[in-house]
């Protein structure tokens, strides 16, 4: 057998991208590629990019700049760029970065072996960015084909990652794309229309993962509430019920949801399916009705508060996390204060907060960006200050509680300690034996910090 080639992959952005990078590693391992460890050892470097915000997109370009020197020293190195920036910019990237060999769109991952072969053997530079089920009327006049989703999930083949067989947790894609067209968001344009994966495929994948020792799965999709099976009409709560029955699997999580589509049936799954962990990520974006309307979110602050109430009624200790966007075009001081007010009312367990940036062709990018950068920074700071306090208070309330932790591995700070998460997704560190990795352990919380808890095994 020929010497293995070496792959280095750098991932930006969300769990979708993390999962795509895993798929790429799986595909390339079957072609005798192994991890390079560091870029200077690689024969193939791929940057898996994100374009959700301007800042993340810029990081992508800086990464590319760093690899330029390597390519100059080692011309046979293949340098590729995938993910949402690749989808968004396409061929223009080849013009802008003459040292880039390959641009690979979000729906083209399954073609990677063929594309890399062409780059190597024919010394061609390629941009492959057809969206298999995009929306031609909405995006820059690309000619798009009619859906043929099957190649995107070569089910049961991509997810085995040799050499990493001792994973406790895994991400499992249940749907891709988004049809919501929130006015600030680029996702529908770079990830295509919503498409659900077949429930049988998902079941098969998770059953195999559980047999390989995976104990927790996170079901991922841009908007899992609109999961519809693939022709079967299976609803997301039905899917959860079926996954709940898989032997060897301890825990189920999912992300991300849309408040408008959060059904009573899904809310009712908390507390009813014992493997479903009591945590939901429910992006709010803004607490102001007028901003929510401008964002095309399809719910009001009252609707949101009502969903929170229903969730807490179904499962009293449920952890709720959210995304907050500040400085949306036209956001006035009073709108922002509505957001602050909602944060204090809901008392989220965690938030991710961002300054708005234009993302053409998302429709809000046609509005005038009238909140000055400095003011966006001030609003973001205020949001984060308020939440920091709430998170700490909520963590402190847990001191003395007994919690179930799934042990994920040795703690980063001290190898004699273990780290894991509670069902509500809080990080817990405690002294313990490595044999416990992959097991559910009862602990008592002894100390609370901003981002983690300390505990002792009971
Ligand atoms: N500017 C800033 N943040 C954004 N997000 C999405 N689009 C933008 C944008 N144009 C944030 C939203 C979303 C999260 C994943 O990223 O809060 O929920
Ligand atoms: Fe973007 Fe809205 Fe779809 Fe989320 S639901 S990916 S914010 S368009």
Task: Offer a few descriptive terms.
458 residues, alpha/beta, binds 5'-deoxyadenosine, 4 domains, binds iron/sulfur cluster, Transcription Regulator spoIIAA, Rossmann fold
Write the layout of secondary structure elements.
Elements: E1 5-11, H1 15-29, E2 33-35, E3 44-49, H2 54-73, E4 78-82, H3 83-89, H4 92-96, E5 102-104, H5 112-122, E6 126-128, E7 169-173, E8 175-176, H6 187-191, E9 195-196, H7 199-211, E10 216-220, H8 236-244, E11 251-255, H9 264-269, E12 279-281, H10 289-294, H11 301-314, E13 319-326, H12 333-346, E14 350-355, H13 373-396, E15 402-410, E16 417-421, E17 427-431, E18 440-448, E19 453-457
Helix pairs in contact: 12-13
Bound molecules: 5'-deoxyadenosine and iron/sulfur cluster.
5'-deoxyadenosine (5AD) binds at residues 52-53, 184-185, 283, 285, 323, 325, 354, 356-357, 359.
């Amino acid at each position: 057998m020929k010497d293995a080639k070496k792959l280095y992959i750098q991932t930006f952005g969300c769990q979708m991208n993390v999962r795509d990078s895993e798929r790429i590693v799986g595909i390339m391992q079957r072609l005798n590629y192994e991890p390079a460890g560091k870029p200077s050892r690689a024969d193939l470097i791929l940057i898996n990019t994100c374009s959700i915000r301007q800042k993340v997109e810029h990081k992508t370009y800086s990464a590319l700049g760093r690899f330029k020197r390597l390519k100059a020293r080692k011309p046979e190195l293949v340098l590729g760029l995938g993910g949402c920036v690749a989808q968004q910019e396409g061929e223009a990237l080849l013009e802008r970065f003459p040292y880039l060999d390959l641009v690979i769109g979000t729906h083209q991952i399954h073609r990677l072996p063929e594309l890399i072969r062409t780059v190597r053997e024919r010394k061609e530079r390629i941009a492959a960015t057809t969206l298999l089920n995009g929306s031609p009327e909405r995006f820059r006049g690309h000619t798009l084909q009619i859906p043929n989703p099957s190649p995107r999930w070569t089910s049961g083949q991509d997810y085995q990652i040799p050499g990493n067989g001792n994973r406790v947790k895994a991400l499992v894609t249940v749907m891709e794309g988004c049809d919501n067209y929130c006015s600030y968001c680029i996702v529908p344009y770079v990830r295509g229309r919503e498409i659900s994966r077949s429930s049988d495929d998902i079941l098969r994948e998770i059953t195999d993962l559980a047999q390989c020792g995976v104990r927790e799965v996170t079901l991922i999709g841009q908007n899992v509430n609109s999961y519809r099976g693939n022709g079967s009409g299976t609803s997301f709560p039905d899917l959860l019920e079926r996954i709940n029955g898989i032997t060897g699997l301890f825990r189920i999580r999912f992300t991300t949801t849309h408040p408008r589509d959060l059904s009573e049936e899904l809310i009712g799954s908390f507390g009813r399916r014992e493997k479903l962990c009591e945590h939901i990520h429910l992006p709010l974006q803004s607490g102001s009705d007028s901003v929510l309307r401008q964002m095309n979110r399809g719910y009001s602050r009252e609707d949101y508060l009502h969903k929170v109430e229903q969730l807490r009624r179904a499962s009293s200790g449920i952890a709720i996390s959210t995304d907050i966007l500040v400085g949306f075009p036209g956001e006035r001081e009073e709108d922002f204060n509505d957001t602050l007010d909602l944060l204090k009312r809901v008392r989220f367990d965690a938030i991710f907060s961002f300054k708005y940036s234009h993302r053409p062709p998302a429709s809000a990018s046609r509005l005038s960006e009238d909140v000055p950068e400095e003011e966006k920074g001030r609003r973001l700071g205020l949001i984060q200050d308020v939440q920091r306090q709430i998170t700490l208070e909520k963590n402190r309330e847990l001191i003395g509680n007994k919690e179930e932790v799934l042990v994920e591995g040795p703690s980063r700070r001290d190898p004699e300690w273990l780290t894991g998460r509670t069902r509500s997704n809080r990080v817990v560190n405690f002294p313990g034996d490595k044999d416990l990795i992959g097991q559910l352990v009862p602990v008592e919380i002894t100390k609370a910090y901003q981002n983690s808890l300390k505990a002792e095994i009971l």
